[in-house]
Design a protein that fits this description.
This protein is about 25% helix and about 30% strand. It has about 80 residues and is of the alpha+beta class. It has one domain (about 5-85).
């Protein structure tokens, strides 16, 4: 059986995530499924895996990644993953 999170649990999760990403330029709000994160600089946003998105997001804020991994797909396109500590 699937249990849906309560409003209080979602609010607590949002508060914990806000504290984790404090000062990094993200607006974090709860929605009916979990969290929505938005970059305050470029206004790009994510609701699917917002914590991963915030760790990998890089825009005009000048944030530099601690590690970068690039993989080449069989069709020649590249996937670039940025890691922030």
């Amino acid at each position: 059986m699937f249990r849906k999170a309560t409003v209080a649990e979602i609010e607590a999760y949002a508060a914990k995530t806000r504290e984790e990403f404090k000062g990094q330029g993200f607006k974090i709000d709860p929605n009916s499924y979990g969290l929505r994160a938005e970059c305050e600089t470029c206004h790009d946003s994510a609701t699917l895996n917002p914590e991963m998105w915030m760790r990998n997001h890089n825009c005009t804020t000048g944030r530099k990644a601690d590690f970068e991994e690039t993989t080449v797909n069989p069709d020649g396109t590249k996937n670039r993953t940025l890691y922030f500590i």
